[in-house]
TrEMBL record:
Subcellular location: Membrane
Protein name: Chloride channel protein
UniProt domain CBS: residue ranges: 673-734
PROSITE patterns: CBS
Stated family: Belongs to the chloride channel (TC 2.A.49) family.
Length: 751
């Protein structure tokens, strides 16, 4: 699927095409965050090793260094505690809100008041959805959708989610929990939020994007662990899907955070099992611990499993295709205003309520089995035997699946010894309903996850296949588990993390071989049609995400072929007026610092200084009347905290700095605050090789230097947008024929 890593092949080191160094980088620098169009920019994962930073680090005592390391672990602990409490509260609220709604509606139906039951069910769902959409649209637009693409793009809204899930929309909690975990980690990493007056100075130890990124990775893993009580799955999810940059120290801290989540959730669930949490603990728990019997299978059972994975891959790719089309259609509607967003959410809610309430009437009533392991029919609680409109002694199998929370539906599908409790037509209707409702529900302006809808859809598909094929060794519950795995693999294209998450959900290690086979086949088949769902969503939103594979045309270009201009350069000791003019006329975030006579015999590259650091210096107003270097007494006026990375929100702007005419004619020594060891590459390096360096190290800027010494010391600067296909192919349209052609099978309905 991907080209081999460029470090293992000979890279082209000669420019094959003429240079366009004076062209303008016109690639998009805005993206859809949640439901709003916002400017985006890269983060400074590279540590600026300037003289001021080195002096500050050398001045730290052993106690301060120990405190720095201790704070990393302490904040990981806080992330685990807070995210686990949010996850528990989320599930507790959903189970009680949705449970009360279903109980009240069921009681009205038992009394023969079907019209009133439908009215209460529909109005309740509509109010919950309206509340979720209103607070998302007006209070937290970035919370719309899953949140996983946003966090994934960052690493390369919980109340709204409770209302939306409780409103019977076919959406999940995992995506918003990942987003919530990342937000919690981000707030802790920057020492709180100035916007809401919640700041803690003792937490401000992470003064750079690298440390904060590590903490956000811990938060995203903790979000998955809190959603499914799958600590190891959360670690692997962060490794496989979220993070573009990994190291062993980060692995230990993530594992620590997810372990804290698992322990806290286990303690809280034990409390709820005693009946102190209302309906929570009697219905769906965070974990679907439903399949604990020993599963025995033989070689003859492999063929049906292979078929399950193959068809699951096709269904997953169709699901991704349709979801992409629906999201594009929703974006067109959303351009008309916020009112249309809320109207669409309410319309989807009413349509969903009509389907969920009306479809069970199409199913025939089934007599209660004599050997049922629970009371039949189920009245006033969750279970496999919903009475609905059936006479005494009978149950409605479709209502047991569709007139229920997603968690309880998954439990019913996964449950063992239930091969004859569901009619195959009911399971088929449930699968089709979940397939299309989850697509329609995802794009509304509310926090909505994809994990649980895909699991419940895949489980119904797997159960239907199991009922059709039949097996002496594999019962329908096991087919449901494998169907969920195949549909997850076909849609999300993850393997290792999904395998472990499902194993932790079902509490059965004996499923491992079958699950591995299903995931590998479904992912391979689906990759022949389109990309994974999160990459498709990131593309729709416009995130400048750098993928791990290298396009072939990048080997035909050198970095000197794509650098754009004009190049803005500062002298080591620069006039304030010049600095202010450059900052006001450009949006660049990094500027090369070049020394010339009399500081150097010839022009020489000294380093790179960031816009934020320049703004800090201008606001400090420690200027020089003549172009001379800062002395030690002048440097003592600065503190390291002043150059710390700002938190989220609007940063400093040059328009906010007011300087007098006298100050504009003074000078500023940039040497002590410039990164004297930035990453540099020769202009003859292949673009493919530079991309690997840029992505793997997590850079924001790469300085391009000339091959020969008799030229200016700098050719240009590479940023993220210089590696984007839209920018490169805009400069070289003829290279589009040499793009990497992944195997694509085109079907008429997928064209």
């Amino acid at each position: 699927r991907e080209m081999p890593d460029s470090t293992t092949e000979d890279s082209v080191a000669v420019a094959l095409l003429p240079s366009l160094r004076h062209a303008t980088n016109s690639s998009s620098q805005v993206a859809i965050v949640g439901s709003n169009l916002c400017p985006v920019e890269s983060l400074d994962y590279e540590i600026a090793e300037n003289d001021f930073f080195k002096q500050d680090w050398r001045a730290r005592s052993k106690t301060q260094i120990f405190q720095y390391v201790f704070m990393k672990w302490l904040l990981c602990f806080f992330v685990g505690i807070i995210v686990s409490l949010i996850g528990f509260t989320n599930n507790l609220a959903v189970e009680n809100l949705a449970g009360v709604k279903f109980v009240v509606t069921s009681n009205m139906m038992l009394a023969g008041r079907y019209s009133m039951g439908f009215f209460v069910f529909t109005v309740t769902n509509l109010l919950l959805t309206l509340f979720a959409s209103v607070i998302t649209a007006f209070v937290a637009p970035a919370a719309a959708g899953s949140g996983i693409p946003e966090v994934k793009a960052y690493l390369n809204g919980i109340i709204g989610n409770i209302s939306a899930v409780s409103g019977s929309l076919l959406i999940g909690k995992a995506g918003p929990m990942v987003h919530t975990g990342a937000c919690v980690a981000s707030i802790l990493g920057q020492g709180g939020s100035k916007r809401y007056g919640l700041t803690w100075r003792w937490l401000r130890y992470f003064n750079n994007d690298r440390d904060r990124r590590d903490l956000v990775t811990c938060g995203s893993a903790a979000g998955i662990a809190a959603s499914f009580r799958a600590p190891v799955g959360g670690v692997l999810f962060a490794l496989e899907e979220m993070s573009s940059w990994w190291r062993s120290a980060l692995l230990w801290r993530i594992f620590f955070s997810t372990a804290v989540v698992a322990i806290v959730l286990r303690a809280l669930i034990d409390v709820c099992l005693s009946g102190k949490c209302g309906l929570f603990g009697k219905g769906g728990l965070i974990v679907f611990d439903v399949y604990s019997e020993n599963a025995s299978y033989h070689l003859g059972d492999v063929l049906p499993v292979l078929l399950l994975g193959f068809v699951g891959g096709i269904l997953g790719s169709i699901y991704n295709f349709l979801l992409e089309k629906v999201l594009r259609a929703y974006n067109y509607i959303y351009e008309k205003g916020v009112a249309w967003k809320i109207i669409l959410a309410c319309a989807i809610s009413i349509f969903t309520s009509c389907l969920l309430f009306g479809l069970p009437f199409l199913a025939s009533c089934q007599p209660c089995p004599a050997d049922a392991l629970e009371e039949c029919p189920t009245i006033g609680r969750s279970g496999n035997f919903k009475k609905y409109q059936c006479p005494p002694g009978h149950y409605n199998d479709l209502a047991s699946l569709i007139f229920n929370t997603n968690d309880d539906a998954i439990k019913n599908l996964f449950s063992k010894n239930t091969d004859f409790e569901f009619h195959y037509l009911s399971v088929l209707v449930f699968f089709i309903t979940c397939f299309f409702l989850s697509i329609l529900s995802y794009g509304i302006v509310a926090p909505a996850g994809l994990f649980v809808p895909v699991i419940v859809t895949g489980a119904s598909y797997g159960r239907f296949v199991g009922m059709l094929l039949g097996s002496k060794n594999l019962n329908d519950g096991l087919y449901a588990v494998l169907g969920a795995a195949s549909f997850l693999g076909g849609s999300m294209r993850m393997t290792v993390s999904l395998c472990v998450i499902l194993l932790e959900l079902t509490n059965n290690l004996l499923l491992l071989p079958m699950m591995m086979v299903v995931l590998l086949i479904s992912k391979t088949v689906a990759d022949a049609f389109n990309a994974n769902i999160y990459n498709l969503i990131m593309k729709i939103k416009g995130f400048p995400y750098l993928h791990s594979h290298v396009e072939p045309y990048m080997r035909q270009l050198t970095v000197g072929d794509v650098v754009t201009g004009p190049l803005q350069v500062f002298k080591g000791i620069e006039k304030i007026e010049t600095i202010v003019h450059v900052l006001k006329t450009t949006n660049h975030n990094g500027f090369p610092v070049v020394d010339g006579p009399p500081l150097a015999p010839a022009s020489v590259l000294y380093g790179l200084i960031l816009r934020d650091h320049i703004l800090t210096l201008l606001k400090k107003r420690v200027f020089l009347s003549s172009p001379v270097a800062f002395d030690s007494n002048t440097l003592a006026q600065f503190k390291a905290d002043e150059f710390a990375k700002k938190g989220s929100g609007r940063g400093d702007r040059i328009e906010d700095v007011e300087l007098s005419e006298e100050e504009l004619n003074m000078y500023l020594d940039l040497h002590p605050f410039s990164n004297a060891s930035p990453y540099t590459v020769l202009e003859t390096m292949s673009l493919a090789k530079a991309l690997v360096l840029f992505r793997e190290v997590g850079l924001r800027h790469i300085l391009v230097i000339p091959k020969s010494s008799n030229r200016p010391p700098l050719v240009g600067i590479l940023t993220r947008h210089d590696f984007m296909p839209e920018h490169i192919l805009g400069l070289r349209p003829t290279l589009s024929r040499s793009r990497w052609k992944r195997l694509r099978i085109r079907l008429p309905f997928l064209s």
